[in-house]
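User: Structure please.
Assistant: Input sequence and predicted structure:
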Amino acid sequence: MQTAIPVPRKVTRPRADAQRNRERIVTAAREMFVELGPDVPLDDVARRAGVGNATVYRNFPDRDALVREVVCSVMDRTARAARIALAESGDAFAALERFVHVSADERISALCPMISSTFDQDHPDLRAARERVEELVGEVMDRARAAGQLRGDVGVGDLMVAVAQLSRPPAGTRCPRGDRFAHRHLQLFLDGLRAPARSTLPGAAVTMEDLRRPCE
């Protein structure tokens, strides 16, 4: 009687086409969430992504899962932009400026309401992505501050609030028209961050913890 030799199990990896479909879904969802908000029908997301409805639900069992993936993907790209800024060996403030403009193009301002209202902010994936971004942005700012180029009374929260607010189209305007002015207004803000400061800001530098603290 022969003893059966166990066959090692192969590690299952997503097929290339399955991974591409997932990426198409996330890209389409991000575009539509920015344009129409988080309540856009998932069938419409599937149509824009060029996949079937079943493919969307196979990858994302519910809306919260898809929204979370979109937000995390935007944060991941923002973190990548911060790493690129940190890797630059030239002008530290110029690197900070480039990071801010790239972050604005991610349209994180349109996704902020989803972070606060759509699902659990303490989900492990979201928390990890958020902490990664905050740490890297802090390092980019510290580098510019150490070079004597960034005023000392601003924090990560100040920067992220400005990016979110200034990249959001003003009320009563069409989105494309608002986008035309976003980078202009961000540059005006960035000029105000340069050291030496020309004024004294009221209050203390804003941290991300300040922004997450419930209103009293």
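Residues 2 and 8 are 18 Å apart (CA to CA).
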